[in-house]
TrEMBL record:
<feature type="transmembrane region" description="Helical">
    <location>
        <begin position="81"/>
        <end position="99"/>
    </location>
</feature>
<keyword id="KW-0808">Transferase</keyword>
<feature type="transmembrane region" description="Helical">
    <location>
        <begin position="119"/>
        <end position="139"/>
    </location>
</feature>
<feature type="transmembrane region" description="Helical">
    <location>
        <begin position="340"/>
        <end position="357"/>
    </location>
</feature>
<keyword id="KW-0472">Membrane</keyword>
<feature type="transmembrane region" description="Helical">
    <location>
        <begin position="252"/>
        <end position="274"/>
    </location>
</feature>
<keyword id="KW-1133">Transmembrane helix</keyword>
<feature type="transmembrane region" description="Helical">
    <location>
        <begin position="286"/>
        <end position="302"/>
    </location>
</feature>
<protein>
    <recommendedName>
        <fullName>Mannosyltransferase</fullName>
    </recommendedName>
</protein>
<feature type="transmembrane region" description="Helical">
    <location>
        <begin position="308"/>
        <end position="328"/>
    </location>
</feature>
<dbReference type="GO" id="GO:0000030">
    <property type="term" value="F:mannosyltransferase activity"/>
</dbReference>
<keyword id="KW-0812">Transmembrane</keyword>
<keyword id="KW-0328">Glycosyltransferase</keyword>
<dbReference type="GO" id="GO:0012505">
    <property type="term" value="C:endomembrane system"/>
</dbReference>
<feature type="transmembrane region" description="Helical">
    <location>
        <begin position="159"/>
        <end position="178"/>
    </location>
</feature>
<feature type="transmembrane region" description="Helical">
    <location>
        <begin position="7"/>
        <end position="25"/>
    </location>
</feature>
<dbReference type="Pfam" id="PF03901">
    <property type="entry name" value="Glyco_transf_22"/>
</dbReference>
Amino acid sequence: MIQKIKYIGLAVFIITAFFSVGHIQSDEYFQIMEFAQYKLGQINASELPWEFNERMRPSLQPWLAYLFIKIFHFIGLENPFYIATIFRLLSAILMWSIFTRLNDYIVNKYFKESKWQNIFYASILLLWFVPFISVRFSSENYAALFLLLSLLTLTKTRSYGNLIFIGFTLGISFLFRYQMGIAILAIYAHLLFIDKTKFLKVLTSGSIIILIIALAIYLDSLFYNQLTFAPLNYLKLNLIDGKAANFGTSPFFAYLYLFLAFAAPPISFILLASYTKGVIILKKHLFVWVSIFFILIHSLIGHKEVRFLFPIMYLFIFIAIYGLMTYFKNKEIKKWHRRLFRVSFVINFLLLVFMMFKPLNGTVKLYGFLYKNVSEKNNLIISTSKETYHFLVDLKSTFYRPKNITSLAIYSSENIKNYLIKNNIKTAFLVHNQLYFDEKFDNYEIKRVYSAYPSWIKSIKFIDWQKAIRTKSVYLLTQKKK
């Protein structure tokens, strides 16, 4: 059964990678892909997010994106949507591989009954939020990948060679996301105080991280064109100067309700209760130390987002399923338990299928339509709100922008009509910031060619769709033949 779950999980990851267009949060896009675009000469530094001028973001992932894009361009692959899909497929395969490698070790050590082995394996691969998180080319994902690689190595002997490799993988994890320093401290504390690993071995492993950080200083300085120690800049701006608090603050306990809402009740309640039980049972386990340290330190920081905890997703699920198994070890499964699990299973299945095919960002999907349909004869894009390639958090987007287009923002229908007539425009795309564009232009046919919503919903009269839905639609304007 485990083999079936394993390959069903792989299929789900791959399907999700194809359809999960866009990003969870804008940092995933702007501070990787647009930073890479800067090194490719496609965008000016002044047009990048504020973090660039502060030299506070790690450059490893933008450098990787830059390198891959250069290779893709060299072999003739320039479509950014194909490139983004390849990045997601790469992420999916890497995360599936590390998950299954760790799973094979964990099921044999911690889950003796085949029933619980199957439940654990399915939870790691098929909980509804796991695939769409795992296919992201994000700092959280790749930091998690190298964290899990180090934890997999820790399942082996504590030889100098293994500990040196652990230092390398933890160092790389840190270079993807500086918050991984919390997990690194937890791992070394556990090695010293619980595992009783010799201090010299731990010191040797830690020295590799120092060497990796030294390499990062070189990469960051090369990226920002001046001597840069980005981790210190990040620490100063976000924690000492309190810059992160400008994006909102939440109370210490906020991750409780943020997680309960994110993971979807009743699934989230089962996971949280089971995790609590698992922490109590496994209180000296390495995974507990890492996850608790990680959650507590993040809870002390005012600005909170669920995605900040994504790097410990695997650890959380393992502890939760172990806690659930322990809870039912000497207890009868009652009728209400079965009903709760059935409801959770159905909800999880529906959400899993939905998220497999759902584009994560509607604007990026719209960009995909425009990229596919603009041509040499039709390369004008007019927006009725802000310029089309500033839709994503009001920053300039160059990665998805087709070459040799004209993109304008014209805010009134009268001005659009005047522009079309004055410049004798034969055809253009009109991007409207509502579901329908009801204006008429003399001498132009107006046809809706793209919308996230079907045209038939307009027949439902008791809802004002223009006000009820925040969306964008694309219309093709074609000059009538005289």
